[in-house]
Amino acid sequence: MRSLPASPAGGAATTDRWAPAREMDLQTLRPDRGRVLPVGAGITSAIGNTPVIELTRLNHTASDVRIFGKLEGANPGGSIKDRPAHYMIASAERSGALTAAKTILEATSGNTGIALAMIGAAKGYRVKLCMPNCVSLERQRILQALGAEVVLTSACEHTDGAIRTAHRLLASAPGTYYMPNQYENQGNLLAHYETTGPEIFAQTAGRVDVVVAGMGTTGTLMGLHRFFAERKPSVRIVGVEPAEGHAIQGLKNMTESMIPAIYDPNALDEKITIDDEEAFETTRLLAVREGVFVGMSSGAAVAAARRLAIDMRTGVIVAILPDRGDRYLSTTLFRSVCAKCPP
């Protein structure tokens, strides 16, 4: 296995053959493992410290560029959204904005809702979620299994319609609800500034050169930008934007959607547009060639990472893989991956 390139900070080339794909010191990356957790450590104690793996069979570049994926589906709620959901709820509890008498209300395309429902169930809060009825059945059923109330909105309005519905509900009974509002909440990006960024830096021994993530609420990208601007400014932050009229659940095209208040376009070093076909095909390839069963936004991120690798001579790219593929089995995403099966 190739060794990682020397740190750009200078110095002799490293002989360290570190690679996230091999066995690593889990006691270093997951200090909670191998010891008894404190009394009362619930489901939120399992959030974060997700693994990083190398994608070797989809990296066809002849250069010394390595592509890694951060498996956010390993979070207990199955997605990267566990991180900001935990931060937003904890902050609201501290400030008094969220009390036992209030219901958590949020607009979601699914993953944030699942995270809020999971944490709400663990803490005893009622949860009501507004989401477009075009989201996968798996997401809807997981929410129901966690005890959340689901309000379905028009598919043709996408997530924007769910946002408008949630705000109408809030305005009709403001004292009844607490709305995290992930599109404006600083806790969204703070979660990635304090956890996702430091994890990537540690897991790559500081040798990461590019981080790629999809554009939805943009909390991941904004938090990563803030962290690496302080820790290693040379790291490029690349946003993956779906094409107009896309069907990639969880992502937003900023020209046709409400722009999140936390989004700062200047925080991105580059923006790459990926269409449905390329995102879905890459998602299927991740499953059958890498054994990495992830969702469609993960395919979009890896598709962008592969494009970037072509123009690089050396370096380390980390793509954020937000969730697992089992949330999309009711969609057409994974059909026809077997040559013996009909479409």
Automatic annotation (TrEMBL):
Molecular function terms, GO-annotated: cysteine synthase activity
Q: A biological process (GO) annotation for this entry?
A: cysteine biosynthetic process from serine
EC number(s): the record gives 2.5.1.47
Q: Which PROSITE patterns match?
A: CYS_SYNTHASE (PS00901)
- Where along the chain is pyridoxal 5'-phosphate bound? 111, 216-220, 297
PTM sites of type N6-(pyridoxal phosphate)lysine = 81
Under the heading NCBIfam families, the entry gives: cysKM
Q: Which PANTHER family match?
A: CYSTATHIONINE BETA-SYNTHASE
Protein name as annotated: cysteine synthase
Q: Which organism is it from?
A: Anaerobaca lacustris
